[in-house]
Amino acid sequence: MTSSVRERHARLLAESRTAEPRARLAQASTRAEFLLRLSRTVSAIQNPQRALETLVSVLLEEMVDVAQVVVRNGPWQLVSGAVQDGPIHSSSARIVEGTPADLDNALRRGLRDDVVLPKAGAARRRALAGFLPDPDLVDEVDALGCEQLATLPLNARGRSFGVLVIGRSPGFGFGDAQNFLDDLAARIAVGLDATLVVAESRYVASVLRRSLAPTDLPQVPGLTLATYYRVAHQSQELGGDFLDVHGPDDDLILLCGDVAGKGVEAAVHAKRIRNAVRTAALVDRTPSSILGLTNRVLVSEAEEFSEGMATGVCARLRPEGRTLRVDLANAGHPAALLVRADGTVEEVVADGVALALLDNTTYDDVELTLHPRDTLLVHTDGVTEARGVDDLFGDHRLRDCLRGLGGLPPSALIESIAVAVSEHLGERAHDDIAIFAAQFSPDPS
Amino acid sequence: MTSSSATLGGADIDAYWTAVSDADEHAAHAAADTAMDRGAPLEEVLHGLVIASQQRVGELWARNEWTVAREHAATAISESVVRRLGEAVPMPSTGPLLTVSCVEREWHALPAMVVALTLRARGCRVTYLGASASRDHLVSAILDTGPHAVLLSASVTSSLPRARRQVEAVRGTGTPVVLGGRALDVRGLRAQRLGATAYARTPEDALALLPSLPVHVPPAGPLRHAGAVEARSIEAESDSISRDVVLETASRLGSRGESTSSDDWRPVLSAFAPHVVDCVAGALLTEDPTVYSETRAWLTGVLTGRGAAPEAATVLEDALAQRLHDHPVAVRLLGGS
Fold this sequence. Notes:
heterodimer; A: 445 residues; alpha+beta; Phosphatase 2c, domain 1; five-stranded antiparallel beta sheet; 16 strands; elongated; B: 337 residues; alpha/beta; Methyltransferase, Methionine Synthase (B12-binding Domains), Chain A, domain 1; Rossmann fold; 3 domains; five-stranded parallel beta sheet; 15 helices
């Protein structure tokens, strides 16, 4: 430990009862400044585990030689702890029987406590293990010769959700710093509680987000799929665009859609549409039938949702020898494009009413044949309606962009569109953008 | 390189290059697999085949020997090769938690992909965010995964102003940020001036400096020097600056009735003018005039390779200096190169 660390510790924790008023005032101001800095640092880091690690590292730099923070969040218990100049031990695990009993008690009681540690031997290690779940940390604290631990409850919103355990090197205790330590725990509790609330809502959003676009695309021999998915900046990371692909390798259903609205409502609605499409596909895999059935489901439940309207393209892909047969139906969505291997761009004309508007809507199937290196491209209106300096990106720019890309791998094709849209947008905000590309490229055998 | 059979040989490099230049994905996978099966280390395959051929692709495009489409096809194939090689590298369950990302509107994804895969193979738990990750996307990923550090890749110097904004965003979460890529200088000065916690030239360097990174970093303070203030103002109106400069440059070159000018260089000029403006801002932010002079030399080659008059880059520079007349630091930069 450097002497500057020792000095910093002394400034915050030296006995002040007997000191002259000026020194006490100076210490009070140092403590207030430290608490402010600590609050700021901890609240900037809205990831719980990182917040705990940062807290431990700040406490070791400025105040103590042993620091461990434990918080409970739902079924999870997060722990970070370290000794001066040692590595930070972190873990995140379900709360299980194995939580040390003393730590568990401290968490339940929510009261501060001072624990005088036995001098040596098995009793000392047992006492340490009662509070420190990490065996390496037990060894390190034991070796440090720490004589006492203070446990400070982390209380917020009327409940105790964590414990801070601190200790100092031999010869140093916490003397008359009780009020300061209470303040410290209160500040930390407020910061960590907010971080946990943020983490909880982020977790909910991430679960919903996962249902909006496939994370893994099926690996089908001869068929190359690629997707691009970007959510608008202002939409709380949950957009209204969605992609899905499902079914057996030789009979895949592709879905690209866009529901009105954004945020949690839109994501939940998009998830329902995906489910309806998946269910409908079990009945009849013809895209017109899938969209028709999906529409009936949505219309029948429409009054529950103020913004139920949605558009989508549904395509069914079946390899037939050296070609790929595509049946496609469109519910009010931007037209799918067929980029031939030679760069010819064809619009797939398939008109249909948007979903969830009218009862008894019927859709028509268009049948296409993809030859090797032809690419089917489905996109949402975030592509063509990307706003540039003077105008929207538009169909003409999309087609111009695609003409030079015939026969390229779908990922290259999609990325070229993404680059062109991004250059067009510059620093301007965009709407949700989703692109799905499928290319049939059977092995040359 | 030794002649041991376990290292990359000229035959591997030739096979890979032929595959990439023929846009033959199967052959590219086969070339990489052949080298791997013989025992060549992953990192050698990544650098010797993928990165080396990608640099060659960039040069061929710059000299107008390859079309953009051909460049994109080659890039897509190399990316698919890296993804495939990555399938054989499991994500470790322990080890440093890292986020690897490209700067916003930086579309050169391969270097970052290679860094992400190399670090994963060396035992790091890596989240790779892909090309052009927006600040929101990056911050979200940081909050969700809580990495020990973020590694940001910037390949082109026009990404430097956005690299600065990304550094601010990452440091706002208290997370250390390491900059790397060809847009930075190898001494790490540009990275330092943009406020990065560290600079890493290679994945190995990044790995070596991980233990020395702080657990948390303070927010990036504002850059207050005169050049930084000008850079912010230039970035705020970069659209109109680019447009004015393109019009002015085209009219000056066109009004001389250049018979040699094919239509080739004009779209390139329009497409790259915003990048030149961003490079000027990047040079000002980093207080490093070579940011601009490197780009100027590169652009001169690109434009003349496409039939523009030899003085095209100079005309562009004059037009830019004129447009930025009320930005004295920028004018000095443009006049002094």
